[in-house]
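Tutorial handout. Part one gives the primary structure; part two gives the three-dimensional structure as tokens.
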Amino acid sequence: MKKWLKIVLISFIIITALTVLSILGYIGYILSTQHTTLNLEKLENLNNKVSLYNNKNTLISANTQQGCPTINFEDINTNTINAFIAIEDQDFFKHNGLNYKRIIKALLTNITSGYAKEGASTITQQLIKNTQLSNEKTFNRKIKEAALALDLEKKYNKEQILQAYLNIIYFGNNSYGIEQASQNYFGHSAKNLSLAESATLAGMIKSPLLYSPITNMQNCLKRRNLVLKQMLDCKFITEEDYNLAIDTPIIINNKNLNNNYAFEQMVIKEAQQKLHLTQNALYTSGLCIYTTLNNEIQNYLQQSITPLEKENQYSTGIVLDNTGAVLGFYSTLPDIDVPHCPASLIKPILCYGSAFEYNILTPASPILDEPISFNGYTPQNIGNKYAGWTNVRQSLAHSLNIPAIKALEYVGIEKAKDFASNFKINFTQNDNHLALALGSLENGVTLCDITSAYNVFANLGKNVDTHFINKITTTDGTVLYSFKNSNKTVCKDSTAFLINDILSDSAKFGTAKKLKNLNIPICSKTGTNGYKDGTNIDAWNISYNNKFCAGFWYGNISGNNQYNLNKNQNGGTIATNSAYKLWKNLKKDYTFNAFLPPQSVTKINIDLKELQNTHTIVLANDQQEDRYITSDYYPTSSLSKLKTVALKQDNQLNIQPRYTIDNKKEQNKQSLYKKLSQIWLNKKEQ
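Part two.
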């Protein structure tokens, strides 16, 4: 085919395609906008903000009241206006509400992707989206947005549009509009914002969480400097102004910071799910959300958190009551509550909880802690130390690795996962290996999820749904949502009690022994996800009793090992120290009771000679001397079997032949656990 003919043919195809798209676009425009009208009342009533209340039905803070402060356009300084123009809509004062160049580019991207992946929103369109429409990414919604933007530009001038926009956008930390954001973050009116402060606020609105100076200062600085670079490129500022501004540190006015920030973000997230509303729709809904927040416990929680010195190190803490209500939540994480490797926190649920549930092990069951290889997987205990013959109680209290892996093998991986899934622990198709016993879950767990799982033990096997909201109403009191607990039975009360009893030992002489001096009934489990150089990626503590369940996490989520916790910052130290501080305050206001054994467990006397010599559980007879007897709890339903059959775990379960001691260095290097650890680190780096 001749060259000129190819050009004509390609031109014809392009013109035809554009014509068809234009016709379809026009038809879509008519169909989508025939019932779409601009609601000026929503634009002019900018103070219809959501109100959050604590568990005593009082406002959490002044920031959540209706009636947020606004500012007039003439009071906004030029640097502030230019900062938003530079980063959000450089042609704002030139277009009629739509930026056609950006629309064409976004349209081509969306057509190739098959859905509305990329937007081309002007400031006018963003104002429409925040006040008139939902936040869904569909062509239909974008067409309506464009139509309303054109209509708005006919009714409002540019100054009025920009004023409305700056007074309604959300800046995080319950700051609605630039005036409230300026007061909350910097302690003064928006009319007094500096160039650096203006750029900071302009950079935040893309994602108030990701670019928050409270929870992610590094991201905030990078974003602020991008805004300043855009201002320089637009010739809004000079090179000298730019250099001075990027060298200016972001100084937050701590007096005005909302200490309930993370809690309130979790409330908003839960409210969105319950009401099926977008974040923007919820923020301007005028609804009243009655939360579970206990202000005093929230303060205790914040006081218990240890500040971390390195960047990219974060902390999270949570306190639940035994109905599942979140009384306090605190986080320095940019995304508030993200998954982490649970490390040894998984052992009481996946390994020993399942073994108790299926009557495979008891606390007194003897188990050999030894160097071992499971078909090439060669795990180790911390410090490469082994206890020899011990029992389940000691193994869990001291968080030994080998016995936990053996327990998982006894139960069977799939059967153990089925049990743990009832605790809302999620597994992927790749989670089918024995390293699960040490927390190597592909997707990890969040602090909320794992603390909620332990709350099942505190409720003796009953699941109570973790929640931040009691109810949601309109301003006239109409109830739109009210929390109801499922109270589903997750495991036997005997299983829960046996785990509780062992974890109370952990708080006395095990890995959480720092809690011993509290002198209150308390159960606790620690977890540490270590790195090969001895530093730590994650440090955990969960502690609970008959009233509350508390969880703490410290760690590095960057994937860069230089930001790991120090060697001495682990589950038994930094995380357990936080638990100690919290419970020390709680015990001033509350009394706690120990868990009483249910009828499904019985305390039995065990022949100590048989236990030590043959590693079997045999009932002691009445004539034996006390020094030849030990005692422990045992499932009542299994007592009759115990009287006639001595339980020999390894031999009876035909497990012993699978264990071989293997010290080959090359095989150790290829162990599955090390592979999974590297996969976990690589995933974080991505």
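Part three, for discussion. Residues 29-34, 62-67, 114-118, 643-686 have pLDDT under 50 and may be disordered. The domain at 39-47+68-258 is CATH 1.10.3810.10 (Penicillin binding protein transpeptidase fold).
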